[in-house]
Amino acid sequence: MTTTINDYYQPGWREQLHHCPACTWQGGSRQMEMELHDEQSQYSCPQCEFPLLIVQHPDLAAIQAAAAAGNAEAQQQLEILAMAPRG
Fold first, then answer.
1. Considering the entire predicted model, what is its pTM?
2. What digits encode the pLDDT tens for the residues 45-79?
3. Coil, helix or strand for 5?
4. Which of 9, 27, 33, 81 places its Cα 20 to 30 Å from the Cα of 87?
């Protein structure tokens, strides 16, 4: 079963243990194969490539809300966005 994370800033999703239903592998997102897309990232089993996790990328409003709530990662992301050239 593929898990979808709609709130990128949800605590613990990176450490959550996943069990692949297609083979015997189990582990966390950092051990999976990641495929980056515009609006989401897909994490797959490193043994059989079964998609185990989909993480929706946050929009600007979600980044700002998480930063205002004290999320350090969101605050860093806002700093990076502030440095981007405007055109």
1. 0.86
2. 999 999 999 999 999 999 999 999 999 999 999 99
3. strand
4. 9
